[in-house]
Amino acid sequence: MLPYKTKQFFFELIKLSIVIGAFYFIYQKLINNPELDFHDFIGFLSKKDILSLKSILSLLFLTFFNWFFEIIKWQTLVSPIKKISFKNAFEQSLGSLTASLFTPNRIGEYGAKAIYYTSNYRKRILLINLLGNILQMFTTTVFGVIGFCFFTAKHQVNIDYYKFAQYLLIGLLIIALIVFIVLKTKLTIKGYSLEKIKHFILGFPKKTMGFALFLSMLRYMIFSFQFYLLLQLFGTEISYFNAMTVITSMYLLASIIPSIFIFDVVIKGSVAIYLFGFIGFSEITILSTIAMMWLLNFVLPSMIGSYFVINFNLPKDPH
């Protein structure tokens, strides 16, 4: 057994390493972005109206409410098993963002949120976090499918519908197979049977889930409008409806393309360039918009979250 002071030292070292890793990751993404040169990005911003006080306040206002609703959503989803304050939900949401920023598909968020709770809660917290992500993904899919239908109706998109139908059929068969295995087998994940997982999700309070879905939709409308506002600030001329057909399609396609979070900005940028190319928007405008969305909704909150990571203490298990 290691002495208490040695354990404490290593624990503090781990927290510091997470924060340094997050800041280094942000620095690398800004300076060594293969699609957008940092100096070109700064030069482009300085030529536009985006650096005015009114523009900055408008963008920060939308960022605030994006994360405000995410924090309320987390507080709501956790409430059936443990009541937490808004302050606790705020700390857990932003702290876990910082800790997971450089992990593939932000998978580290699951463990980061679970560690805020004593061991008897952690398995359920993992499932609740999964449920929250499913609700957000469901919102992205619904809005995305609607937007993509309008987009393809207006623009000549080269889609091989035969291949698309093949992939869709294969995907549905895989999902059906997974569902069948989950329902008919007694597999366990770290001691938590799939039967228990199914019962947990199906037995989750419907009102709570419904309200969390509503908050997911509010978040989606806020950050998609923020994307539209950035396009406007960069001097593009496009109606809100036409912009939303592209933005919703972009989020849908970017979310279903297999990726790791390290390349998430690049993938969103590539998809956005392709889709906005139908309207004739310049690459620098689209890439700068993507970069600003990342700075506002991930980098800024993760910098605040670094404070919570540094000051984090493990909860004590009840004896």
From TrEMBL:
Topological relation to the membrane, as annotated: Multi-pass membrane protein
Keywords: Cell membrane, Membrane, Transmembrane, Transmembrane helix
InterPro entries, A to Z: L-PG_synthase/AglD
Parts of the chain that traverse the membrane: 9-30, 50-69, 126-153, 165-187, 208-231, 243-266, 273-296
Location in the cell: Cell membrane
UniProt xrefs under Pfam families: LPG_synthase_TM (PF03706)
UniProt name for this protein: Flippase-like domain-containing protein
Organism annotation: Flavivirga spongiicola
